[in-house]
Amino acid sequence: MTVIKPHGVTIKATAHYLPERVVTNADLEKIMDTSDEWIVQRTGVRARHFCAEGESTREMSFSVLKDLLRNANIKPDELDLFILATVGAHMTCPSTACQILGDLADDPEFGHTNAGAFDITVACSGFTYGLNMAHDLMASGQYRNIAVIGAEHLSQYVEMTTRGRGTAVIFGDGAGGAIVSRSDNHDHGILAQMMRSDGAKWGELYIPEKARDIPEQTHNDEMPLGLMRMNGRAIFKFAVGTFGDLIQQTLDKADLSPADVDHYICHQSNVRILEACRERFGIPQEKMPINIDRLGNTSAASVPILFDEQVKAGRIKPGQKVMFVAFGAGLTWTSSLWQL
Predict the structure, then answer these.
(1) Are residues 160 and 256 in the same domain?
(2) Considering 25, 132, 270, 297, which one is annotated as catalytic?
């Protein structure tokens, strides 16, 4: 069945931000019972960026939003909507997205905007969820430019001790995003997408704020409240079982073969999962890039950071097909296959 889109949609600009502080596996060896060999063998991570004091999701996202507006050559009053994907909201109310637009209004280079703004909490799947939402809103003809940013300050949610080793060695901080804009070319836009969840398994990865947030069936490991708890084996099994099937289902929706897609921009959760997927579909390394070795798992920021790196390197070009794939807490999984 052919879907007639009233407007084409294009990804007009990309940007990302990484904190200056780099924490290597050698640094972690000094403060917990671990080793570079142990971390690399299990995750593929060799280093990650951590926020400095005073840096947060808000500051990183603000930097990315300014770069997006510059790269897209649009003014704040031309921005219709801002979607921020994060598990690290600056505060409960108001949304961090609104606060960032307030920061934009105070910046002499940019100024005030009445763009809609809200946060979404879909963990590692957040940016790709937001990209799908932005596309469908844009295709309706009611919007011109939408900013979608994924940003995470995960180092604040992990315990930097041997007890917290299961999460401390994996996660990193960062932000990335894109400007989605209306296009006169109706061929531009999403060819297929999926957004799924299994809420029955939410307890495999979560950050409890109060004791009541801890599932009754979960063993009390004495991890302090406010820090991330993850059933690593369950999450790995979920990702291995979901990742490849998600790609295949998205290809089937678009009636394409794996070779028809020029680039697979995948959430960087574990190098073993990515390599298994490459092997299953026969995807060459240059079509499924990896940066988890340098950046760790940056959750909602993972996909847009990798995408911007590939765009800036000149590997991703107009006319190509790009599939975004992510999965994470919730449990959630999502895809977005674009004709650029």
Answers:
(1) no
(2) 297
**Residue 124 annotated among the catalytic residues of the structure:** yes
Question: 232-254 and 271-281 are packed helices; what angle lies between their axes, rounded to 10 degrees?
Answer: 30
Measuring CA to CA, which residue among 3, 299, 302 is closest to residue 135?
3
Q: Which of 124, 132, 153, 270 is catalytic?
A: 124
Q: What is the pLDDT of residues 298-331, one digit of tens each?
A: 999 999 999 999 999 999 999 999 999 999 999 9
> Beta-carbon neighbour count of residue 262 at 10 Å?
16
Cβ–Cβ < 8 Å for 268, 302: yes
Written in H, E and C, the secondary structure of 274-334 is HHHHHHHHCCCHHHCCCCHHHHCECHHHHHHHHHHHHHHCCCCCCCCEEEEEEEECCCEEE
- Is residue 267 annotated as part of the catalytic site, yes or no? yes
Give yes or no: residues 18 and 143 share one domain.
yes
State how many domains the chain has.
2
Q: Indicate if 201 and 290 belong to the same structural domain.
A: yes
| 297 catalytic residue (yes or no) | yes
pLDDT at 333 over 80: yes
Q: Is the per-residue pLDDT at 119 higher than 70?
A: yes
- CA pair distance 57, 264, nearest whole angstrom: 26
Domain of residue 93, residue span:
8-183
Is residue 71 within 8 A of residue 145, CB to CB? The reply is no
How many residues would you count in the chain?
A: 340
Q: Is residue 1 part of a domain?
A: no
Catalytic one of 49, 263, 267, 270: 267
pTM comes to: 0.94
